[in-house]
UniProtKB/TrEMBL annotation:
GO molecular function annotation: protein phosphatase binding; protein phosphatase regulator activity
UniProt-annotated stretches for the region Disordered: 610-634
Organism (species): Esox lucius (Northern pike)
Cellular-component GO terms for this entry: cytosol; nucleus
Protein family according to the UniProt entry: Belongs to the SAPS family.
Top-level taxon of origin: Eukaryota
Protein name: Protein phosphatase 6, regulatory subunit 2b
């Protein structure tokens, strides 16, 4: 056996460890050093845990390597060193987290002047993050003893690895009392306020973006942990500060102080959106998002801080930061919408609980942008959210959803913004453009959903009575056009949108496409026939042929009736599909002559073993003769049966080549469905024994083994005589 032989080869790493003068670099050159470290190779761990080795590993991940080397080799050893230090081996964790001189070497990386090397910063963050998780008390105590620790981290916040370090301190400290103590320390160091100060037009874009992302992650993490520990946890001091009106007001003041830059406005708005964020709804629809969103109470202090700055946001929609022309696939866009206005639209969709938006006419301005920027689906989605949430929300949160109320925002939407009139005009303009050969406008899908939202909430919803009255008050022309639009155009569009994308017409492609197909025609033909079988059989077979619970009994008396229902299945075979079937069977006759022979036995007055007969050649069936399986749905006694509709084949009858339950001697055999061959029946080439000498075997299930004869004597297909006919 294999294990009798000593095929084990001694590791090169072991040979190196035998040397007295082995160096760390030599060990790191070995491919299996990390594997052996994680496997806790004792000799390797003893070597690595030496003070000199640990110091060398730390210097590798905190010191810039020489610039003369290739980039692929410069960071080879720092990368391996980082993997060794973070291999989660207790000996290394204890050594690194328990000795202050080693932590000092690691901490010295933060004291370097900016900018930090991003790759080395990631090594540092990964190493100290692992220590925060594994040696929490020692590392937190060490960091708290460093007076300027938080200032150094924020100085390098433009490196994303510093964000990860801060989030580790917030989310990876256990147990809960120690975590709460750490949060209080970070709050005393004014972490939230100092991050907000970085979102200012005077800061560079990278620092603003990373500071905003850190604030958003702190808000989400704090809320998640508060939800998980609702019973026995103190309030998160960082979250309390960020949700305070004072902090939000400071953020908005920074955003709109001095020159308004896009990076500052976008970064600050992202923080506001996170403060107003609905819990992630998963894969629900837009309407579900809106309903869930306004069942949740928005922090009033956040709204109070935002209200005085709504005019600034409205002005941003009119006069955004200057944008350069943008080249798109549809041409040059001279005045792009811009990321700034898109974020303003997102914020407005979250602030529809405030009626000041009606006073400022902000929703009307958003609708103008909706129709102006035809191809910006990001904007279209936000405007759709605005409309949907308006008509789904009652102005009185305590009113039950089945009672209609009055919402001033809905009145503003229909009367001041002329929502219905805009929908009708945009729809007609799109129809004219398409009739002239133009493209369908990019907002039409969202416009359809907005129209459907209005129609649905006209019948039911918290403001359905108000919507009905507003539609009734439309000018006579628009009222009639709206009713006609709902009954005709919108209904037809909804019908088309609900049609399956996969057509059941197998011949929908053009003949030119067929001729240009790169696949062999025989494969296409077989696939077509398979598709036909699936198409014709699936619906009828599943619906008509099945077992009900009451049809099973201990004695099985009713099971035959279930099988008899196969005869009731109806198939509609059209002429073009018949042509496909004929081609398929011709292909079968060409490739599988043995199967053709078994089919022929039921199609001749004097059947001869192994003689194939055209299954369609018989025009007048006689007793004992095979019948066209599609021409006679109700076979008579002694006549070939429908291969899909017959309950059981009769003696001397053509047999269903797919569903025959018990083939008889001398009768065609299912070439694919026979689980085990019997005496006198075709042999399964995969499960049967080898054929006897002098006996021919049909590899696809022909009748019983026959004496080997020549092709001319018994009519076997001669492949050289055939000509290609379907490809």
């Amino acid at each position: 056996m294999f294990w009798k032989f000593d095929l084990h080869t001694s590791s090169q790493l072991e040979a190196l460890l035998e040397k007295d003068d082995v160096t760390l670099t030599e060990l790191m050159d070995e491919e299996d050093v990390l594997q052996e470290c994680k496997a806790q190779n004792r000799r390797l761990l003893v070597f690595l845990s030496q003070d000199t080795c640990m110091q060398e590993l730390l210097h590798l991940i905190t010191t810039e390597p020489p610039a003369g080397l290739e980039e692929t080799k410069r960071f080879k050893y720092p990368n391996v060193a980082c993997e060794l230090l973070t291999s989660d081996v207790g000996v290394i964790n204890d050594k690194l987290g328990g000795e202050k001189p080693l932590l000092e070497i690691l901490y010295s990386f933060l004291e370097q002047p900016p900018p930090l090397n991003p790759l080395l910063a990631s090594f540092f963050s990964k190493t100290i993050g692992n220590l925060i998780t594994r040696k929490t008390e020692q590392v937190i105590s060490f960091l708290r003893g460093k007076e300027g620790f938080l200032g150094l981290v924020l100085k390098h916040i433009n490196t994303s690895a510093m964000m990860d370090l801060l989030l580790r301190l917030i989310s990876c400290v256990e147990p809960a009392p120690l975590r709460q103590d750490t949060l209080n320390w970070l709050n005393e160091e004014r972490l939230a306020q100092r991050l907000v100060e970085l979102i200012h037009p005077g800061s560079d874009e990278e620092r603003q973006s990373n500071a905003a992302q850190t604030l958003c992650d702190i808000i989400r993490l704090s809320r998640d942990q508060a939800n998980q520990q609702q019973d026995n946890c103190e309030a998160d001091p960082l979250l309390a500060v960020l949700e305070s009106q004072e902090c939000v007001s400071q953020l908005l003041s920074n955003m709109f102080a001095g020159e308004r830059t896009e990076s500052c406005i976008v970064s600050g708005t992202q923080v506001l959106l996170t403060l107003l964020e609905i819990r992630r709804p998963g894969a629900e629809s837009v309407l579900d998002v809106c309903v869930q969103g306004y069942e949740r109470c928005v922090n009033s202090s956040v709204l109070q801080a935002i209200r005085p700055h709504l005019t600034h946001y409205h002005q941003l929609l009119l006069e955004p930061p200057k944008q350069t022309p943008m080249l798109t696939s549809l041409g040059v866009l001279e005045v792009p919408l811009g990321n700034c206005r898109l974020h303003v639209a997102r914020l407005m969709a979250s602030l529809l609980v405030t009626l000041e938006l009606c006073t400022l006419d902000t929703v009307n301005l958003l609708l103008d942008l909706f129709f102006k920027y035809t191809w910006n689906n990001f904007l279209h989605f936000q405007v759709e959210l605005c409309v949907a949430s308006s008509v789904l929300k009652s102005s009185l949160p305590s009113v039950p959803p089945d009672i209609s109320t009055h919402n001033p925002l809905v009145t503003h939407l229909f009367q001041d913004c002329h929502l219905v009139e805009r929908i009708l005009e945009a729809w007609e303009e799109n129809n004219k453009m398409q009739a002239g050969g133009g493209m369908r406008r990019g907002y039409m899908g969202h416009l359809t959903r907005i129209a459907n939202t209005i129609v649905c909430n006209t019948e039911k919803g918290p403001v359905h009575t108000q919507i009905k009255s507003l539609i009734a008050e439309l000018p006579g022309e628009y009222k009639g056009r709206w009713e006609s639009f709902v009954d005709q155009a919108l209904t037809e569009t909804n019908r088309r949108n609900t049609v399956d994308l996969v057509s059941h017409n197998l011949r929908s492609s053009s003949e030119d496409d067929d001729r240009q197909s790169p696949f062999p025609k025989e494969l296409s033909l077989q696939q077509t026939f398979s598709d036909y079988q699936i198409q014709q059989m699936t619906a009828n077979f599943v619906d008509q042929f099945g077992f009900n619970d009451d049809e099973f009994s201990e004695h099985g008396d009713n099971i035959n009736a279930t099988f008899d229902r196969i005869a009731e299945i109806k198939f509609n075979v059209e002429s073009e599909d018949t042509v496909t079937l004929e081609c398929f069977f011709l292909l079968v006759l060409f490739v599988y002559p043995g199967w053709a022979a078994s089919f022929g036995e039921a199609n001749s007055n004097a059947p001869s073993p192994g003689l194939g007969v055209d299954p369609w050649a018989s025009q007048s069936p006689k007793p004992g003769v095979g019948v066209d399986p599609w021409a006679n749905p109700t076979p008579k006694t002694g006549v070939g049966v429908d291969p899909w509709g017959s309950p059981a084949p009769k003696s001397v009858s053509g047999v269903d080549p797919w569903t025959s339950p018990a083939p008889m001697h001398g009768v065609g055999v299912d070439p694919w469905g026979i689980p085990a061959s019997t005496s006198g029946v075709g042999v399964d080439p995969w499960t049967s024994h080898a054929p006897q000498p002098g006996m021919g075997v049909d590899a696809w299930g022909s009748p019983g083994p026959q004496p080997v004869t020549t092709e001319t004597e018994k009519g076997w297909a001669k492949f050289t005589d055939f000509q290609p006919f379907c490809w």
